[in-house]
Design goal:
Helix 1 (19-32) runs parallel beside helix 4 and helix 2 (38-50) packs across helix 4. This protein has two domains: 19-90, Orthogonal Bundle (Helicase, Ruva Protein, domain 3); 105-298, Rossmann fold. It starts with 18 loop residues before the first helix and ends with a strand. It has twelve helices and nine strands. The protein has 299 residues and is of the alpha/beta class. The protein binds S-adenosylmethionine and glutamine (GLN). Residues 106-107, 109, 113, 134-138, 140-141, 157-160, 163, 188-189, 204-206, 227-228, 238 line the site of S-adenosylmethionine. S-adenosylmethionine (SAM) binds next to helix 7, strand 4 and helix 10.
Length: 299
């Protein structure tokens, strides 16, 4: 769906008494806006807003919809009707074991990045106590690490003030369930970490080239922050700089773990392999079997 600037029409004359009415109203509005499979969409929106399974609306169609629920669902459906990705429309996304609040200021965390966290945790021995997430966005990686393992400190950086604000708000909401302290710092790549020594540096940097922008799906291209997606030098600018800076902050045997564009995994692996500050370079696959992560140890 392309981003549309017109406000969708919601049939406000419809009585919103029950969940069934709400579903019917949203379905009608989405249909009139040309959304494909409007009933499925409406059901998904309702389930996402209420945080219930997708069959819930059908099973509870005669239950009353409170005004708060009706407003939240209608607002989300209107966002969806103008092309917003579901996560932005409902204001949150699932990432591993967490629900992360997201909006247009940050990238919607991806399933491949869930795998990145998995591979990092597999390689983190108990004596690896200090970890940094570079380009934290919503905070998804940093907060998952802090939720799933006890570290002495999880540091997270981003060059976007907006991203630091979203990530900090997520950290505040999750405060009571995190096992590790998390600290956010504003600035480019590793520069906010001057003087720190780390056991792990993990990053999902922007890695789409400017030339590839037109080929991105419209809901990514038109909605997600370009700062989160695009990188100069054929998409490799941020990655190259990260690889250059990281050894200064990594303890001996420390791990660098980077998500990459699947078409450029070989180039990044080569970039790391020719740098004699690194050893044990590995290219790891995502769930679709594509080369998606480059890992290396500080030599
Ligand atoms: N880590 C999050 C995730 O995986 O969902 C967001 C990843 S997004 C692909 C890249 C993030 O890097 C964005 O939040 C963007 O603002 C940030 N970023 C871009 N350039 C940066 C730089 N030079 N230094 C630090 N962060 C940067
Ligand atoms: N995987 C994202 C996408 O193309 C890009 C994220 C990134 O640049 N790190 O949808």
């Amino acid at each position: 769906m392309n981003k549309s600037s017109t406000t969708p029409y919601f049939p406000t004359t419809l009585p919103i008494g029950t969940i069934g009415d709400l579903l019917a109203g949203c379905t009608a509005m989405l249909e009139s806006e040309g959304v494909e499979d409007p009933q499925r969409e409406a059901r998904e929106i309702l389930a996402a807003v209420l945080d219930v399974p997708k069959f819930w609306a059908a099973a509870n169609s005669i239950a009353d919809a409170s005004p708060d629920v009706a407003i939240a669902v209608i607002r989300a459906a209107m966002q969806r009707a103008i092309g917003a990705p579901l996560a932005y429309a409902v204001g949150r996304a699932s990432f591993r074991h967490l629900t992360i609040e997201v909006d247009e200021r940050v990238l919607i965390p991806r399933v491949e990045t869930e795998v990145l966290v998995d591979r990092v945790l597999e390689r983190c021995s108990g004596d690896m106590r200090r970890i940094a997430d570079i380009g934290t966005g919503s905070g998804a990686i940093a907060l998952s690490l802090a939720f799933e393992r006890e570290f002495d400190l999880v540091l997270a950086t981003d060059v976007s003030v907006d991203a630091i604000a979203v990530a900090s708000a997520n950290a505040a909401s999750l405060r009571t369930v995190l096992k590790s302290p998390v600290e956010f710092r504003l600035g480019s790549l590793l520069s906010p970490l001057a003087g720190e020594m780390l056991d792990v540096i993990v990053s999902n940097p922007p890695y789409v080239s400017f030339a590839e922008l037109p080929q991105l799906p419209p809901d990514v291209r038109d909605w997600e922050p370009s700062l989160a997606l695009l990188s100069p030098e054929d998409g490799l600018g941020a990655t190259r700089e990260l690889v250059r800076q990281a050894p200064r902050y990594l303890a001996a045997d420390g791990l660098l773990a980077v998500e990459v564009d699947t078409r450029r995994a070989g180039t990044v692996a080569e970039m790391v392999s020719v740098d004699d500050r690194y050893a044990d370079v590995e290219v790891l696959l995502d769930l679709t079997g594509r080369e998606r992560f480059v890992f290396a140890r500080r030599a």
